[in-house]
Design brief:
Elements (H helix, E strand, L loop, with lengths): L5 H16 L2 H15 L1 H22 L3 H19 L2 H35 L18
Helix pairs in contact: 2-5, 3-4
Length: about 140
Amino acid sequence: MALYTRKQVLDEAKQLANMLAHTEEIERFKKLEAKINSNQKVQKMISNIKTLQKQAVNLQAYQKTEALKKVEAEIDRLQEELDAIPIVQEFKEVQLIVNDVLQLVTKTIAREVTNHVIESTSGDLLQGETGTEYKVTN
């Protein structure tokens, strides 16, 4: 069995990250993000929401509950309006897909490492328990 250094593993992780960065999903995400960044209407709405969120934090800190409710209602209204824009909807959908792909990769790596540990200690894969014996596997 080959042993790898931490640097070798990190180099491979960087290679995997590079591969992921060039998947269809990530490419679509980048294109949509560029469109959103250049869309003046969307950017103005995002800016307004951020400004209102800062106001909400200040109002909450000063316990101005009535004013806070009005600001939060305006944030919700603007957010709904923003979410109704087709490019924003598409961006959010692709963002979820990208997140799912990244989680799938992370879970797959964790599961495979765990399975190798269990197998190399003569453990029980079905029970998910490591054993007490260490054996070299390829």
